[in-house]
Amino acid sequence: MPKILQNPRETILKEAYTLLKDQGYSNFSMRELANRSGIALGTVYNYFENKMALVGEIFNNKWIEILDELKEVKEKEISFEEKIKLIYLGIEKFLIYHKEVFFELTKSEKKTESKKSHGCKRYDVLDPLYIIVDEIIDLHKENKDITIDIETRKLTSFLISNMITITMKNKEFSIDDLIYIVTNKL
């Protein structure tokens, strides 16, 4: 008689998250996941087509949690600088455990985009973050808290790309340096 599993999908996701934190994306093994979760490898593949599909779901779930936290930053009655620091801390919190997956997913998105010639917009994992930061910048431009004369999306792109770079443990440049540059229009 076959073993009846209680919440196998959740069990797989929970164990996969732990395995991903412990071993990273490149050392993540579906076979090891099956062994750790006590679920047959075939059953794991019934729920997730491949490693990228499984890890992508974990990544998206955690990213959505971070984005939900960051959406609240816009409404806080704090300075522009403090909001940017909170955005940075959210990105840092996420990338501590998901840096490798983040780069794998964005790399695969770039490959997919380069194969498309019909010009359809692809979904980018950073799009929701860009929107959040755009809204924060627009709010503070409106309130005259920041007066830098650059398009909002360009400033957002500058901030986010540099936040990601800083998160990679850049020792020469800090979030405070980035905020100084933006607020002092250097």
UniProtKB/TrEMBL annotation:
<keyword id="KW-0238">DNA-binding</keyword>
<feature type="DNA-binding region" description="H-T-H motif">
    <location>
        <begin position="29"/>
        <end position="48"/>
    </location>
</feature>
<dbReference type="InterPro" id="IPR001647">
    <property type="entry name" value="HTH_TetR"/>
</dbReference>
<dbReference type="InterPro" id="IPR050624">
    <property type="entry name" value="HTH-type_Tx_Regulator"/>
</dbReference>
<protein>
    <submittedName>
        <fullName>TetR/AcrR family transcriptional regulator</fullName>
    </submittedName>
</protein>
<dbReference type="InterPro" id="IPR009057">
    <property type="entry name" value="Homeodomain-like_sf"/>
</dbReference>
<dbReference type="Pfam" id="PF00440">
    <property type="entry name" value="TetR_N"/>
</dbReference>
<dbReference type="InterPro" id="IPR023772">
    <property type="entry name" value="DNA-bd_HTH_TetR-type_CS"/>
</dbReference>
<feature type="domain" description="HTH tetR-type">
    <location>
        <begin position="6"/>
        <end position="66"/>
    </location>
</feature>
<dbReference type="GO" id="GO:0003677">
    <property type="term" value="F:DNA binding"/>
</dbReference>
